[in-house]
Amino acid sequence: MVDSISRIASAFESARELTLEAAAVAASRLGESSYHRYSQSITPEGLRSLLNSRNSREVRDGMKRVASLMACDDPTINLESYFADVVKNVSSDDVKVKRLVAIYMLRYAEKDPGLALLAVNSVQRSLSDPDSEVRSLALKAISDIKIPSLYPIVLHSVKKAITDAAADVRCAVGFALLKLYREQREELTNDILPLLQDLLADLDPEVVSSAIILMKEAFPDHLELLHGHFRRYCGLLPQLCEWSQLYLIELFAKYCKCFIPKPILVDSSDASLTVPLSDDFTDIPFAVYNVSYHADLSLFLDSMQKLLHSQNAAVVVAISKAYFELTPPLTFKNSKAADALVRLIAVPSVADGRALILQCILVYCAVDPSTFSRFLNKFFLFPSDDTNTAIAKLKILSTLVDLNNVKRVVSEIKYYIANDQRPAVIQEALNTLAGCGQLSRSLSLHITKWLLTRMVGGISSASLDSFVSVLRSLIQENPTEHLHTMLDLSRVLRTQDNLSGTAKAGIVWLFGEFSSINFIICPDVLRVLIPNFSREPKEVRLQIVLLAAKLLSWEIDNSRNSSTEGGAFDAENSRTAQMARAVFYLAKFDDDFDIRDRSRLFCSLFDNERYEIASLLLQAPKPSSIAPMTLHMPLSGNASSFASLGLDPDTEDYLTFCSWTFDGDADESSALRAPAQTKDYSRMKTSFSSSTFFGAKTGNNFSRDSPAAQTSDGAQSHASRDFTSSAGRKYKLQSLDEFFSDIPVKDQRKRRVIVEEESSDEGEISQEASESDDISVSSSTESDTESEIDVNT
Amino acid sequence: MFLSFYITDLENALVFQHLLSYDSPSFMSLWTKLQAMAPESPNEDGWFKLSISRSLQVYRYKSKTSKLIYWCLATHQSNPLEPVVFLEVFDNTLLQYFDKEHLTVSKMINNHDRIALLLNCMVDSNEPAVTDFNHLRDMVPSREDLSKVINSTASSLSNRIAQRNTSQVFNIGDPTKDPGTKEKLVPWRSAGVRYSNNELYVDVVETIHVVLRKSRKTGEVASARGTLDGVIDFRSHLSGNPVIALNLRLRGHELGIPALHQCCLDSYKGRPDQLQFVPPDGKFQLMHYSIDLDSLQSRSKLFSNIGLVSPDYRTELGDLGDEFEINVNISGSQHTKTVDDLVITLSFEPLPSECKIKVMRSTHGHFENCAANNVGKWVFDRETLTGTLPVLRGCLENATREQVRTLQLSVSYTNKGELPSGIKVDSVDILSGLPKNIKPFKGVKYIAKTGDFHLR
Fold it and tell me: Which of A595, A785, B192, B278 could form a disulfide with A590 if both were Cys (CB 3.0 to 4.6 A apart)?
């Protein structure tokens, strides 16, 4: 029996697999697509009549069409011409239509302020709707209309709504204030600040979230507003919305530097040695140390620990940055922030911003490689990593490489150089390889040898340049060791015909530099190059001229040093001088202006025996081409310190931070953060502390147990709801608006054949049902409706 | 501060746009500007961020599941990661909202109004506002379509039959709001959810990213880089406010710092194998973890953790040394009979035009040559039995030994029923909060996929 049932069940299962596809097709035919076709067929005139219809279904169809037109960027239909038709639907009973009208107004209200004002009155009326969703929507809609004459009304509505019982409405207040602030900064600052203080004092995490967004956008420097809430917010942090978590962490990081004393480092071998954390992490005097934090700072640091599990990558990065700024490397290493960052970049990334995370890691590594050294493998490339990610990973590798792991890194990088197709990646891999080569002499020899065999083996000309420049930097680093490499290079010059101009020029230049170390082999290279001078590409000819000049200059210096009396240089019998003269002569007839000019310059230098100037010009020591990947703190405000890392400019901005400014003592700082009064508007609500579920453990964090002040606050807030100062602000258009809203909408719900329409009908019914329930539930808002009517009449 | 949002298909044709003010540029004008600044070249991989002017930036996010690109225009952000993450969240929200595995262009076009409504809720005063999915769904009620009805019918059919309660077979599960309770218990869960059919599903999906390296000298295969990327997706259709305890058997794996859904952050005690939470209603990602394969010391341990398929090859065979042989070991499993859609891609270094990959013998599937002469695909049938050892022998015509030696393989397949790491769901218990007399249907599914699986 059981067997047969399970067989039937599995048959259904497979039948489901089969029918699913068919259903998907059928569903799209029956439902949305057919509706879309119908919607597409609405003519411009038809749309107008739909929007003006008294049937709510037709209005809804019309608004859907408007939404679709707004979304598809169709230049043939001018949506602005429907302004009046659309906007008057703002008094619709359907929240969806209201919302769509709000979206329309957000976009077009600026264009036609006169008509937009038409809607204001009914929006204002819905500010006292019994449904909190409608109220918050109304507040959002009215603040979205960017018309200067409206701002006083918005400000008034906001002041009224800030004591609303529903959290979403108070939440909308934060956003409305932000919009006001953006439009009229200076004039309203004094009005907005106290309101922001109220919002910050709210007990509801949602409201605090919106207050933090307002604060971060409008008043990022008024950090003193956070004094009274610092400790509460630390507990509240995990409950805020993820974006506010991000902003709050950044605000608090700044706050800590302004109002909390620096952490004190204590030498673990001798507890009497203490030093405050300096901005430059590299000059910590102790090898092993303990850190003691101010209680509030450690509260903040601990509260972030849990958020390392956040699914939002930006939050994790913000936490890592806060740790990096506020704590010495030891705490950063132990904080597990590194683990969380590495989790974010563990999978191959396809142009999705992971490169930015890697760039942050790169900066952390450049300051202190030990934090990430155990994750070395994580920075090896995947075949599908995109270019930015690959480059950032390679840079991180070059900061992490040391004598213990260099073998693994070198073999990986060789593979990338041999197999990757992207020139930018190869270039970076070569740079990293050069960095590896600087670690030891044998490695440097090994790497140059490998590079040479690959050059001879024939590679694409694009990456050849990078090969030469890396060779150059390796040889420059330790020239005496590389005699063999140079000999090999001279063989390459002689035998390789397919060298690109730039690569060959690079090699020739290298010999010019090498002449300072080992002069003997260089003239022969010049000798080999002269016969083909005219057939070489432009860059090579230029370098040959330069090589000749350099050799001559060295020869002159050498002969003057050897002959004690400092006699004149015997230009006639010197082979080098003869070759140089030949090259200068050839260059005189060159096509290229630059080459002719150079040869003339060198000729006149040597002919007039200005040898000192020549040696100054030609024997100047050259800096290494590969910059070291290390950074020194402080990074404060000095973008040039990042230059060698090649970061994205925004990442640079993000990671430069101010230095620690607080210099009071600990008690003074603690006193600042005496808990401020909080406001609780949810008298009837049960707290969401979910203590029923997780016991007292989490209940404590939420600190919802209302303080004594709160009841009086709540009462006061409800008293102020009867505030009626918008009296006298009347509009002539108001009667028209009322005219529209007074028309009873007939309920003409017909039975439809289309499946889609039926189902949305159901949605409507359920929505209406919930609305009617709202009225019965919330009795306190009824009085508001009355007061509003008083105002308007 | 966001200025506008756009969604396009992969050819950059506009699908949807949402402008937050009258001055925001339409996609057409933005695109012309972008074309002038950074002309797209086909073989380069895309950027994700481009500065148009000193304070204006365009961010682009290519959806991982759908063939869509999300764009936004934003003013300078202090945290450059924020817009990218927001676009990712937006993509996930749409997927959840429409309850699809991937979104199509026509779905988007048919639902312009809903996307605009969602975005209107997600962004307020040009800043991210509500992004919690349950909250969004309360604000913009979603609509069922026919495929979903059938989907839930089938599951409830088998469910009901199992419970011998055929009278309710056609009572399709759909959340109905309990009007009495408007109060949310936890911010991430809609208030007063009520289902006629209570069910919960746990899907554990692991993606294998591993780069294996075959030593030239010894022929031994070792890992250069390996990661298992695991996701636990949860779908709850439960009445009331249940508290769920999910226990995993980790098989000794270290999950590090997994990303957790907001709902289990509060009760998390550092044990990823014991989670307790009040789930949001509907589908959500409970946990995202990654298992580091590089830290596994022994070779056998590595190979027991990279899934059912392990490839190997030998080159320089035959008289001329231009032949190669690929052996694939599909190990047997108690939990699954087949692996699906197995494809092994062969690639050599760029070859001269006279070279050609030729297959001499193969035990399974067929071979497809690609446009480039150095790449070929060994495509298996839709299902390949586990516990088999497919072999392919071929040669690279007119090639030298060195060229044959550059053979590399990449593997792609999926299988159900077993995870490469061996992680299992031990139990899903509902501790409290569910109305009495309800025995919810519980389902667990394991899926293994490949991401970057290479042998070089």
Answer: A595
